Automatic annotation (TrEMBL), chain A:
Keywords: Cell projection, Cilium, Coiled coil, Flagellum. Its main location: other. It comes from Cryptotermes secundus. It is found in: Cell projection, Cilium. The gene is ift20. This is Intraflagellar transport protein 20-like protein. GO terms for biological process: cilium assembly; protein localization to cilium. GO terms for cellular component: centrosome; ciliary basal body; ciliary base; cytoplasm; intraciliary transport particle; non-motile cilium. Residues 78-123 form a coiled coil.
From TrEMBL, chain B:
InterPro entries: Beta-prop_IFT80_2nd, TPR_IFT80_172_dom, WD40/YVTN_repeat-like_dom_sf, WD40_repeat_dom_sf, WD40_rpt. It comes from Cryptotermes secundus. This is Intraflagellar transport protein 80-like protein. Gene3D superfamilies: 1.25.40.470, YVTN repeat-like/Quinoprotein amine dehydrogenase. Residues 479-624 form the IFT80/172/WDR35 TPR domain. Residues 163-451 form the IFT80 second beta-propeller domain. Its main location: other. WD repeats lie at residues 47-80. It holds the Pfam family TPR_IFT80_172. Keywords: Cell projection, Cilium, Flagellum, WD repeat.
Length: 131, 627
């Protein structure tokens, strides 16, 4: 009877319930289904991890980019500081030369005053000696 | 409205400036500077001024100087003939702006991150390096104490002049801020700090007083008391110049001149036609205790004189006219009003001396020197110092010009001015100290002999014995020459005789002895005038005292034939004497008579040598009897 049922495409399982599918196939199908679900779960998991990874990489890239810009900026700044220093040096040089000119003027004046003092001293001595 | 196009050129004109008389325009053209007269068809005066493109020029109306700056990173000072008076050192950046202070004593130079303040002679007072970018234009405030600059970075920079320093005797005054002044007494190291409610505009120190002009008031301090100044409000509030003299000071405001006493009282306000006090050149105004002299601004041949009367009144003395165009004037400071003298320098740099008061002979202009670059009177005695070409010259007794012209050279001290470099300027002459400003701005002190000023003192008080003793002690020929001139001027014969003897002027000594031998005072006076070469004076003295014969005879001695004959005819006496001497003179030189006047009388008058000699003898005896 089971065979005739099988011919008709009907089967009984262990629990004596009537089935349209062959019990083995059904079993396999079920198994497949289970496995598929597992697979889907795993894939989802993987995707999640991959997403996380991508996000991390992205932020890292951003970080790197930022640092890079910073570095470039710093390097440019460094270059301009050298220039700025040069300009400052030039300015100070100009101020120094101005001051040194003034100093020279004062030196000449001081010298002339010293000479005058000497002349007067001589005159006083002369007068004291020859009075 | 466009009136006319005066210049058309292929190169861009970066800058232009009006000339002082508004008849000429100065403009740039590449590396050239061009002065173009507005009269049509006039040839412009042009010269190559810079090695790079000229970006800015300025022309000052009061001192007539031109400044220019350009892409060759230098600024230069020029006179109106295109002669270079100063060339700056190489700067780091092109000069983008340049501007005169209204008074013409300073100018400002702007460049990239640079603001410079310079003296009119070109040397730099100070340098600032503000972060402004290039300063494209500079403008001064009308009182000449502040500048505003248009900066390349979009800012406007304001600057105020401080650290102006003045010295007088033992006092040193420094403007430390916009509204504060510090005074130091160098001899005892005492400090004073003076504060003012307004901006300080002018400061002047001298004659025991410090005068400070702020934007609305005038403060007068004496050196004895720094705590309680005399303060008065200004009439106009815009002072262009401040000149001090012994008893008063002159304030030059925008449209008026006022003389104030040190008590703050207004004494008087001189005025004349066409005066523009705003553009006064400091070299063309001079004051002394009793006189003010100002050169006219439109007519440069004219010098106005104002005498201060005793009753605080002002007398307009007749102006002095000099054909050469006056560029500098100076009044002496010492002595009585009768000794007031004016020196003037004309366009050819010749220096002339004249007395302000006295007779016509004293008032005539006498040439004292040529090629005078700068001059200064002494503050205490009437000595004059000047830079002449490459010499520093001190005239110990300038009046000698009116006493004995041949002594001028002997009363002068010459000194080589090469230690002062090119174009030095005498800025002060106090006591025996001369202050000379070199072209690089340094102030060189130089001392002159102290004895002439002592001699001046003795002469002023007629202490001739002391004067003689001083000269004998010093044994200096210059001093002796000064004494000779002074004593001759004062008509002190004994002193003059010894002084002339000391400088080996035997002819003068002999003449003085001849004068002394004459008992008549008037004759002595006339002969003294002759000694100084003042023939006209001598003649007028003689004529005034009725000594006709002597004046005729004096003219005969001087070979002044025409005048002698004229006098003889006029007074109807001694015509034969004159003709006789003329004949003798012609015979000695073996010359024919060519003088028409004498030819006329030749055969009309009988000449008898004996009679004439007798007549002369009679005249001398008559003189003695009358005297």
């Amino acid at each position: 009877m089971a065979d005739s049922l099988a011919k008709a495409g009907l089967y009984f399982d262990e629990l004596s319930k009537i089935r349209v599918l062959e019990p083995e196939a059904a079993q396999e199908t079920n198994k497949l289904k289970e496995e598929c679900r597992d697979f889907v779960e795993k894939i989802t998991e993987f995707q999640k991890i991959a997403d996380g990874f991508i996000f991390m990489i992205d932020s890292l890239a951003k970080e790197v980019e930022k640092e890079k810009m910073k570095a470039i900026g710093a390097r440019n700044l460094l270059k301009s500081v050298a220039k700025q220093r040069e300009a400052e040096r030039q300015q100070l040089q100009a101020l120094i030369s101005e001051k040194s000119m003034e100093l020279e003027r004062l030196r000449i004046q001081y010298q002339s005053l010293q000479r005058t003092e000497m002349e007067q001293q001589e005159k006083i001595e002369h007068l004291v000696l020859h009075r | 409205m466009l009136r006319s196009t005066i210049v058309q050129s292929d190169t861009p004109i970066y800058s232009a400036a009006w000339g002082p008389d508004s008849n000429q325009v100065l403009h740039t053209s590449g590396k050239m500077l061009i002065i173009k007269h507005l009269t049509p068809n006039s040839k412009p005066n042009k010269w190559r001024a810079h090695d790079g493109l000229i970006l800015k020029v300025a022309w000052n109306p009061s001192n007539n100087l031109i400044i220019s700056g350009g892409e060759d990173c230098r600024y230069r000072v020029w006179d109106i003939y295109g002669r270079q008076l100063y060339c700056s050192q190489l700067d780091d950046y092109p000069i983008t702006s340049i501007s005169w202070a209204p008074g013409g004593d300073l100018f400002a130079v702007g460049s990239y991150n640079t603001l410079r303040l310079c003296d009119k002679t070109g040397w730099s007072y100070s340098l600032e390096k503000p972060t402004t970018g290039s300063i494209f234009n500079i403008t001064w405030s009308s009182d000449g104490t502040q500048v505003a600059g248009a900066c390349g970075n979009g800012h406007v920079i304001f600057a105020h002049i401080i650290e102006r320093r003045l010295e007088w005797k033992n006092y040193e005054v420094t403007v430390t801020g916009r509204k504060s002044i510090s005074v130091q007494n160098v001899s005892n190291d005492a400090w004073e700090k003076l504060e003012f409610p307004d901006r300080i505009i002018k400061v002047s120190l001298g004659y025991n007083h410090l005068v400070v002009v702020t934007s609305s008031q005038c403060h007068i301090y004496t050196t004895k008391n720094w705590n309680t100044p005399v303060i008065f409000d200004l009439r106009e509030g815009s002072v262009c110049m401040l000149l001090l003299a012994e008893r008063h000071f002159l304030l030059v405001e925008k449209s008026s001149l006022s003389l104030y006493s040190y008590e703050g009282r207004l004494l008087c306000s001189p005025r004349w036609q066409g005066m523009q006090p705003e553009t006064f050149n400091p070299a063309c105004v001079s004051i002394s205790p009793d006189t003010i002299a100002v050169r006219d601004q439109t007519d440069e041949k004219l010098v106005h004189l104002f005498e201060l009367g005793t009753a605080r009144s002002l007398v307009d003395a007749p102006p002095i006219r000099h054909g050469g165009g006056v560029v500098e004037i100076a009044l002496n400071q010492a002595g009585s009003p009768g000794e007031r003298q004016l020196v003037l320098v004309d366009k050819n740099r010749d220096m002339y001396l004249t007395n302000i008061r006295g007779s016509a002979t004293l008032k005539r202009l006498c040439k004292l020197g040529s090629m005078i670059q700068s001059l200064c009177w002494n503050n205490d005695t009437n000595m004059l110092a000047a830079v002449q070409d490459t010499n520093l010259i001190v005239w110990y007794y300038p009046t000698v010009l009116y006493v004995d012209k041949r002594l001028v050279k002997k009363t002068v001290s010459h000194r080589d001015a090469s230690e002062f470099g090119k174009n030095p300027v005498v800025v002060s002459f106090d006591g025996n100290h001369l202050g000379v400003r070199r072209v690089d701005g340094s102030l060189v002190t130089s001392s002159v002999s102290p004895y002439p000023s002592v001699l001046h003192g003795y002469a002023a008080s007629s202490r001739w014995d002391d004067a003689l003793r001083l000269c004998r002690f010093i044994k200096d020929s210059t001093l002796w020459a000064c004494l000779a001139a002074m004593s001759t001027h004062a008509k002190d014969l004994t002193t003059a005789e010894e002084a002339y003897a000391a400088i080996d002027e035997t002819d003068k000594v002999a003449y003085i002895q001849h004068i002394k031998a004459n008992p008549l005072r008037t004759v002595q006076l006339a002969e003294m005038a002759l000694l100084g070469g003042n023939i006209q004076d001598a003649e007028s003295i003689l004529l005034q005292n009725g000594l006709v014969f002597r004046s005729i005879f004096t003219n005969l001695h001087l070979h002044n034939w025409n005048r002698a004959l004229e006098l003889a005819i006029k007074h109807k006496t001694h015509v034969d004497t004159v003709l006789f001497f003329r004949k003798k003179y012609l015979e000695t030189f073996d010359k024919p008579e060519t003088n028409l006047q004498f030819l006329q009388f030749k055969n009309k008058v009988e000449l008898d040598a004996e009679k004439i000699a007798h007549k002369i003898e009679m005249e001398y005896q008559k003189e003695l009897q009358n005297g």
